[in-house]
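A quick aside before the break. I want you to see a complete sequence-to-structure record at least once, exactly as it would be stored in a machine-readable document. Don't worry about memorizing anything.
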Amino acid sequence: MSKEPIALLREYLAKVNKGEKSAQEVLSAVGGWMKESGDSLKNKIEVEVEAAVKRMGFAKKSDLDELADEVAELRKLLKVKKVAPKNIKKPIKKAAKGKTK
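That is the input. The structure line, written in tokens, reads:
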């Protein structure tokens, strides 16, 4: 249904007047057309907004959420590495035998 809304309504009203379609069928068809048009418009707006945001260099919330998750994982890894070396005994350096100054 890529026709203009007014032309579409005129066409359906003509069919109702001729008895080819009932008012319920027309309402159903117009409702379907409005939903399709709304979904199409929503998708176009989302694409345009995403392109504009990308051009301006802004980060999306999903990007920030991913980054926050990654930072949390790295912090967990860092804590694990800090704990591990404390439990390991360091070797004691022995003085070299036989060397004198």
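Two observations worth writing down. The longest helix spans residues 23-56. The chain has two domains: 1-56, 59-87. We'll return to this after the break.
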